[in-house]
Amino acid sequence: MDFNKYDLYVFDVDGTLYYQNKLRLIMGKRLLMYYLLHPLKFKDLIIIKNFRSLRENAKDTNGLFDITAKKCNVSVSRVNEVIKKWIYENPIDALTASKDDTLLAIIDKLKANGKTVAIWSDYEADDKLKALKLSTDYVYTAEQERVGELKPSPKGLNLIMSDLNVPKDKTIMIGDRMVKDGEAAKKAGCDYLILSKSKKKREEQLKTLL
User: Does the model's pTM come out above 0.85?
Assistant: First the structure.
């Protein structure tokens, strides 16, 4: 692959700009300590598990909080409170310890060389990008009304290419999951690069791009 031949580089966030396994280890410890001290709230873990499972297999974000509430026999407001705390807010400060410095340096190099970098995530990304100290004018997420669909739907990627007026043969998708990022890119007709979850293997991959 000639990684420098593209005009538009679209990056996934979760598990791509940082090492997912390292973040999960940090968050696992936090969850364990918190619920050992608050055993009466232990049902929150069931809420988190059900929400993540539903979102993983959903086509869009509509109704996920309501469905989770029904499955767990709790209020929608309780689901919202738990998910906001543990999925959207609490992991933010752990990103610094989990970030992929080599990939972030490659992104800086791409931007310095005049390439266009865009973000496409299934989750809200602004706070994560701030924590990772990564800036870009083009951030697309499944929770934005214009996108509204989760990967592997190619809708977000097609919107990015259309908005930025870049053809598919000049666009590459960089992610960490073939079933999500790779399949979305295939459906959109773009090239893609799937990074390993293993730090050692990923560093070997990234060496070829430097």
Answer: yes
